[in-house]
Hints:
The chain contains four helices and 17 strands. With 245 residues, it is an alpha+beta fold.
Amino acid sequence: xxxxxxxxxxxxxxxxxxxxxxxxxxxxxxxxxxxxxxxxxxxxxxxxxxxxxxxxxxxxxxxxxxxxxxxxxxxxxxxxxxxxxxxxxxxxxxxxxxxxxxxxxxxxxxxxxxxxxxxxxxxxxxxxxxxxxxxxxxxxxxxxxxxxxxxxxxxxxxxxxxxxxxxxxxxxxxxxxxxxxxxxxxxxxxxxxxxxxxxxxxxxxxxxxxxxxxxxxxxxxxxxxxxxxxxxxxxxxxxxxxxxx
Length: 245
């Protein structure tokens, strides 16, 4: 059983401070004291409720990985590898794995704060009153990987799987979780990736605000806007309801 789901934003060392300030601002959070052997980890602490976003300074281009809090890490690893995952590293406090398509995730120990009942809806409000919430991890999957990884994540999480509004999308939603998964079938056979999505009450206003804080707009879609953060990582602002997703 997954007790809590964390979005881990991995960002390059040389832009990490700017990225941490950016994401803290747009999620209405404060940056925790750094931790780790090289002070490479921080948590974004919301004004109320439990946190669900962490950040890590890395030596490469960065990306997204997931931390999944569980009660029994060896049992979770056995389940995941039985479903096709591969173990990357086993450390004293956590285990790093990759999904069949190559998405990195970690099994981490569930803490007392992980057993909190329903996840509170903690939204962020821009200066103009626009409401947003970082509430979704989008797994970007090639046509050859979409079926295998969809089946993997559905079995591993035991969350509810539903088709999206467009045929290339489907969703996994878990009970009492701060984050949900969007599985996206890409048009080309490129490598697996992931990005975060923010739900917004006004995507144009949110994108403009993010640009003023250092983001770069890439393209406007039907109901979403694609941007890059100060670390050059892609993310999306979508027109979903910030309170309900």
